[in-house]
Amino acid sequence: MIGKMDFSDVLASTLHDTKNSLGLLFSNLEDIIADCRERKCPSHTDFYKLQYEIKRSNLCLIRLLSIYKAEKSQLAINVDYHSIRDILEDMLTQHEFLLNTRGIKIETDCDPALFWVLDRNLIAGVLDNVINNSFRYAREKVVVSAFMENGYLGIRIEDDGAGYPAAMIFNEKNNPEFKKEVDFQTGSTGLGIYFSTMVAGMHKKNEKSGFISIANGGKSGGGVFSIYLP
Amino acid sequence: MKPDSPKDINLRDKKVIVIDDFFNFRLTMKNMLRSFGVMYLDDATNGEEAIRKMAVRKYDIILCDYNFGQGKSGQQVLEEGKFRGYINYSTIFIMVTAENSLEVVLGAAEYQPDDYLVKPFAKEVLAKKIKQHIERKENLRDIEKTLAADNYSEAIRMCDALIAQSPRNLSEILKLKGEILLKKGAFPEAEEFYTKILLMGNVPWAMIGRGKTCFLTGQYQEARNIFEDVIAKNDKVMTAYDYLAKTLLKMNNPRDAQEVLMRAISISPRAIIRQKNLGNIAYRNEDYCTAEVAYKSTVEQGKYSCFKSPADYTNLAKTMVQLNNSEGGLNTLDAARKIFPDDDDARLYVSVTESYIYKKMNKDFEARKAIIEAQKIMEDLGGEIPASLKLELARAYIITGEKEKGTEIIKHVIRENHDEKEILEDVRVVFRETGMENQGQKIIEETRQEIIRLNNVGVNLVQEGRLTEAIAYFEKAAAHLPENKIINANAAQVLMFFMKEKGVSGENLNNVKTYLDRVRKIDESYRDFPMLLEMYNELVGESGTNNSG
After folding, report:
1. Pick from A128, B82, B178, B321: CA 20 to 30 A from residue B442's CA?
2. Is B170 within 8 Å of A79 when comparing Cβ atoms?
3. Rounded to a whole number, what is the distance in Å from the CA of B139 to chain A's nearest CA?
4. What percent of chain B is predicted at pLDDT more than 90?
């Protein structure tokens, strides 16, 4: 018995498959790189660019799937009380290697006693996207830091690159409504921002919701992405 | 703040097992592990073999495939390991899988592994995960040992000491502390503890802990509100459904309890215990169609599960009979015979149910034959059978014309369980189905009163300070009713009162232990149990200092 499938479901299951095969591709490539390195083949560093692109596509698909699930109301927020240092260090180990191949250093800065209630997977999804972008935009340094501000937990990713283009800037200065839902219709916002805003907004406490901000400057003079959670 | 490289993990003293059906994968995995310095390395090709090995050796790290084609799934290995105590708080269980659709399969599972690994994965990833979990779990070992010795107060002190240091696994330790507070019966402390955590955010386990506290202290309406709130916030938190259903049963609302379990099962159907519970509740609610579906799933899912039981088959058979499918019922019993070939309990369940079905089919001769068979097995077993089975036997006697005999058995069940709501409910069902509803109600009430009086006589003796007489009285009562938790709890308590006054003796301590073990076996979450255990531990402590002094 075959019923008619909803197109978005077809899309979602295809996304899933593609995501899995990208995952395979990524680790196969890792073996090839290791092999190349051993044989001192000079082009093995070129492969890193490939790995970065695979990772980027993979993250895009994960994001798309999350948004799909949110649309279908299947995306429930799954919070626990997490060590923020732990989450940031996890990010570091995941991205360090690839970033280092480009001569980019990544650092974390977080009080070990900082704990917060949040959905670890969703927040990791947001941070993964931003950090992975540093591969292309940072010059030599990325700093991931966490702090408390007005009763919110803030996690910030700063680089020393050229910064975000004007159209992407998204904070209290250029948009007084930035703490509210993004207007997706204007098309001025990318999928990444949409996803980040959605995840931030899913974190609620005592009538307060999370939000993000995108600016330039900061300690390293490049792009500054921050997510705030109540 | 750079994390250490994988080389720094010391895995020399860790016992590791790799469970996977592919030879090549086991080989690769074992090579990886050897390169990390693992010395104790076992493997298993399927879930059954894994469980056998886990019974003999306590592993620190378990790497288990999710999908084995046939036999137990990785999830069942985890469940059975936990159920049998082979996997505890400090064991690292990592589920390995070939596909990424795990979230669908496991997102709703009750027993969560510590981590997932999606095949194929790099050596570094495995090393990193193992190291992280070792670091995280190390601090749980000592608490676990203290807990195994039933020393709750000390375990709580150890949790507090750790919490003050904000370790990475803070959440896990907080969760554990809450569980210990509830086990200890420290309800006001538990409530305060969970409320404090909830100030930081709506963490589901803390909400459930809060709800459990209300449930255990009899605040059912409040418990119900909390569990409903958990589900409203995240409908995948399956434990909330189970507790909500339990709460509704306590509130005499079996219809809604059934509804709740049905919703849970539509989200997460692969949960054998929940299917069993749904079957039982639906059967009591006379919703045989729902009961049939639930029992069928129970039987199906039980094939490779440690939670399978002959009662799953006989319940299904009984339900089929209610739906006028006696043939189906008999076939189900045949299946049970094949699944449990040399199991006396199972033979008894089957024979008893068989006589019931034959009777329904008006085949009196076969019905008689089956019950005679049941009687023979029963004698071999020496009466050591669960209450539900005794009730089945009683039902079979009554409908095959031996009403006296059946009623006697039922009275015995009531005496042993005069305070167990669910069993009394089952007694009512048996009376209803044998056309003895009114008479049965009277029997239940009279027998309950008989035990309440019996208990009160003993309690009065204690209140009058006639401790020696009270001890003798409860000793006799407990010998007569070894499965009545209130009688046994009181027998333990009066002996302990006596020892507090007159000093500790080894023999009396032993007797208390026997009573307490019975209580624990009958009802692990009995309200007074933590208090009794605490008293017992104090006395054991005193006897220790006396001996050394």
Report:
1. B321
2. no
3. 16
4. 57
